[in-house]
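Why does residue order matter? Because the sequence determines the fold. Keep that principle in mind as you read this record.
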Amino acid sequence: MILLGTSNSTDKNVVITKHLRMWAERGLIHIEDSRDNSYNVFAVRTILHRMRGISDMLGNSSEREMHSESQFDRAWRAEQVEMLEGMVNVVNKAKEQGMPSDPSACRDLVRRRPKTIVVPGYGGGM
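Structure:
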């Protein structure tokens, strides 16, 4: 998974990068990739591991290339940090929604699901 680009979303619940769109729904993280039109769903724990890996990569590369004054390197690093900050909001939103395996989250999902109610007609309108 390549994570590049700038976030241009004003919604804190959706992170949009150059090729990816990430959001939380029903306690899971959903990711769309516009390059190959793929769609994946990940658990919060998996996304946290990936975020840790990206963060470690940025930390290691900044220490190794501390004297690098490349504007492209700084721009790429800023984009990655901005993406990670947005992903923190998405992860927090997913945690608020509750894990799908949690019984209270399942009850809440059933309660919020749209319901169909049949109302008999009146006055012989058929």
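Confidence is low (pLDDT under 50) at residues 1-10.
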